[in-house]
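RECORD TYPE: protein structure
NAME: LexA-binding, inner membrane-associated putative hydrolase
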Amino acid sequence: MMGPSHALSGAAAWLTGSWAMAQFADYHQTPLALAVGTAVCAGGALFPDLDLSGKVTRNQGGATVARTFGVVSLFVAEVMEKISLGVYYATKLSKDPRRSNGHRTLTHTIPFTVLVGWGTTALCAHYGKWAVVGILFFMIGLALRGLFDKWAERAGWVVVTLVSAAAAWFTFANLPGDRGYPMIGLAVGVGCFVHILGDMITRAGVPILWPIPIRRRMWTMVGLPNKIALRTGSKTETVVLRTAMTVLAVLAAVGLVAPSVLQRFDIQV
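PREDICTED:
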């Protein structure tokens, strides 16, 4: 899927999950916590594509996530792509094909998702709000680049960086004291997992079973059959899928902050 679809899926997943937790587990969040979780999950849903690098010196190419902060994020993407390719060749078996890049390898696996979610939680728990502000800066930037892709492209990476920094600092100033902030790590992990699910419905698939060897292949790509798989950039993705996720996200958000509005339309929440 394309970057905006990934980001939207992360936002929809977090809002829907938060609504379900409020309804069935009586777990309620403040508006600020809900906004932070949604932004982080939307950013996390773009994070796995950090393995698709572009041309660092020209500030061109790469995935949506790689262009978020200009040459800095492009450089990080270049490093991640090389690490992913290195892990691929270090673990490949005899029937795994040769590759020239690491896209859709390491960062599109369950172990990576768990590691990123756990690592984020550990950083927040150990360093408190100072770790939170850095993580929020990065994730909010990704969320802006994905959810508002046309605006972000026109505004440029400098503006996106400044807006991300301002939003992160505002959140930092208004969050309660050191609490560990485990929900931020969960939001990052959920976002990464939603990204994997999104790529699984495309033709290329993802190595979701790694590192389980199957028929002398370590990197088995799992996806839908070509006849029913989602074609990246198609109307099905950009119109049908995005519209459905937008409606789901809006309904969940209204159900969380203003359930009486939905009750007027006889929508049970």
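COMMENT: The chain has ten helices and two strands.
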